[in-house]
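Supplementary Methods S3. Complex input for the MGD-bound model.
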Amino acid sequence: MQTENGTATHFHTCPLCEANCNLKLVTRGREVVSVRGDDDDPFSHGFICPKGPAVAELDADPDRLRTPMIRRGETWHEATWDEAFREIDARLTKILAEHGRNAVGVYLGNPSAHHVGVALFSRAMLRTLGSHNVFSASTVDQMPKQVSAGLMFGTALSVPVPDVDRTDYLMILGANPLVSNGSLMTAPDMKGRIRAIRARGGKVVVLDPRRTRTAEESDEHVFIRPGTDALFLFGVVHVLLEEKLAKPGTLAPLLNGLERVAELAREFSPERVADACGIDAATIRRLARELAGAKTAAVYARIGTCTQEFGTTASWLVDVINVLTGNLDREGGAMFPKGAVGAANAMGAPGRGRGVKLGRFRSRVRGVPEVFGELPVVCLAEEIETPGSDQIRALITVAGNPALSTPNGERLTRALATLDFMVSVDIYLNETTRHAHVILPGLSPLEQSHFPFAFTQLAVRNFARYSRPTFAVPAGQVPEWQIMLRLAGIVAGQGPDASIDALDDFVFEQQLEKAIGSEHSPAYGRSADDVRRALAGRRGPERLLDLMLRTGPYGDGFGARDGLTLAQLEQSDHAIDLGPLAPRLPDLLRTPSGRIELAPEPVVADVERLRAKLAPATASARPLLLVGRRDLRSNNSWMHNVEALVSGKTRCTLHLHPEDAHALGLGDGETAVVRSRAGSIEVPVEITDGIMRGVVSVPHGWGHDQRGTRLGVAARVAGANSNRLAEEDRFDPVSGNAVLNGIEVRVERAAAANP
Ligand SMILES: Nc1nc2c(c(=O)[nH]1)N[C@H]1C(S)=C(S)[C@@H](COP(=O)(O)OP(=O)(O)OC[C@H]3O[C@@H](n4cnc5c(=O)[nH]c(N)nc54)[C@H](O)[C@@H]3O)O[C@H]1N2
Ligand SMILES: Nc1nc2c(c(=O)[nH]1)N[C@H]1C(S)=C(S)[C@@H](COP(=O)(O)OP(=O)(O)OC[C@H]3O[C@@H](n4cnc5c(=O)[nH]c(N)nc54)[C@H](O)[C@@H]3O)O[C@H]1N2
Ligand code: SF4
Ligand SMILES: [Mo]
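Predicted complex, serialized as structure tokens:
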């Protein structure tokens, strides 16, 4: 929409976090004049956080890379795309020829999940490469939840989300959605939603070792000792069964393994877990009764319960409780969204499937099992360092900063420096990409289209929204889906100039076969030629998206019925509302049994390890435990180069309880050294009673003081990398997920800084 003063209005989904707010942008030429929330969007209703407007500064950031870069020694040179791809081809092809596929590793970072082009086309690159050494940010994040959901319901994204807009009781563990804006729960404006629960007479309870902003908005906050959620949740299960409060109702005929759960829960009485959790038994019993007694209730848990010692067990127990209280799949409980595209639980035969298989291969050095086709990132450094066949000699990183975001950042940093060759697809020269030999820059978010590919499968209300690019792709830049395909061409041995069109067609044809081949597809029976013709004007992500939308659960089946098409979404500046969550059982299940596996074998087998936690510990023998936290103006490691977000108070501080500070002789603002088995960092102390005694907190994603980066703003507010304290030998054995919370640390005054 163009106006007389030369400005234009555009709408674009904010790509920064899972909330997927719609932004209303006013532009003049290539400049963004203002960014606001889109009041007319039926999904985000005008909500944005302070990071939304920062998309404009990210777009304008002079440090953001716009040209491919090649490094010779310590010096970076700007290169043409052809030069960059020729360099990659020459060096990767040689390594592949001499050492085989596993010699090339890949790391996919978090933003790859927020970019439809990367999300759809990185798979082609990975499949063509065929390396076992694929890693991602998922194993420093949500993998435990995906494993537990996969085992219980049959696909890795069958993750129940709390029906926040209708629930009467919400229990939140290890999540701070007022600051993070929610994860595995796409729900803009959680503050408004929590207030609404309370306004309609409901209750919100938060269990967290910190009194978070979410806790402050809630009815009750309970401090919980890090890493003990599985014990607490077992305590709740114990009470539900012992006091005969469990009432799975209509779910009962769908359950396998209820007896096994009851057996396991027997020894985890509230009285036995209380001490370890730091929560008295009476409180655990009361919370269990409240959950059972509420008209509707949902238990929701996130990062704090995933990135810890018992990540899968805790994630599993959350849904066991949702089942036992009869709240799974019912309005106001924990429900399954129905994603508009790509939802494996909405495709193929309903009600039964192949389920998930884990551990189909193992990492070379430590023998850690694979999860959903990738290896845990805690194994990355050793796979680079350890000589032998299948040693990683070359690495491709895509939208990731593992040097800051994964355990033992110092060791990984050293390992990256030893690689024979490294390519990074990224928008910054940062702590990770400085080790690359070639950097291929992605685009500004405003120069590309957007579709919340994974997140329509995780939203608290079903919706679809497509954003056209606000700005055209600048001359001489390349969309990331094409970068993925050119890399695919190289690893396929087709050289640096393989035809993008041919590769794009190849990816499309494979998807086409899947999309119309199943008798359950709404487009079943359409000829491939009809579909090709219908999509003739489209290429790349848009062609795939249109195909997936139209053959998805809301799609028009290419004329078979009334339904969604990409053309419809393109015509709408705002989201298309697809209604409140609706019950989906039993059709959603893809387990081989066609039932909910309430006691999946790999999870049950790990309960033994949890039992060891029941042994009483004396308070004095309890070490300080480190947890993380997030700041509203931060986004993992990579939005720290935006002045508007990092100005003001120092954010990378050590939260310390006043009594712990007193015992350690540390004052507010003094510099502390924090040490773990992996390493040490120095951070300023911030004394606060908002943290549990015996627990300290440092946010992750900082540590921008490393040489050879191009982050003018971030380097001034460097902070320290908390992941130098995270230990690469501690992970949740079921999912391979790293332990980032509940790390034993020692804290003392820094000698140099405070003589
Ligand atoms: N201690 C501790 N560590 C944690 C966590 C924690 O809670 N505590 N949280 C973990 C979690 S949840 C996550 S998701 C991970 C994140 O781990 P990573 O994904 O490895 O790290 P990010 O900080 O998200 O880095 C994103 C990278 O993508 C680049 N980038 C941004 N936009 C684009 C784009 O459009 N295209 C391309 N090609 N690149 C882009 C950025 O420059 C940056 O290099 O960190 C984890 N690490
Ligand atoms: N502002 C901002 N927003 C973000 C991000 C960001 O970096 N900054 N990152 C995005 C990403 S990638 C993700 S995955 C999401 C994550 O979103 P959330 O899961 O909401 O993550 P956090 O805000 O880190 O909240 C985790 C909470 O767990 C608590 N905790 C730590 N250990 C334990 C424990 O053992 N038990 C319990 N019960 N609690 C514990 C911490 O104190 C913290 O309050 O946020 C996303 N949104
Ligand atoms: S909450 Fe903030 S960062 Fe997340 S999508 Fe909305 S505006 Fe963007
Ligand atoms: Mo994440």
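The first strand starts at residue 7 and ends at 13. Residues 110, 141 surround molybdenum atom (ligand 4) (CB under 6 Å).
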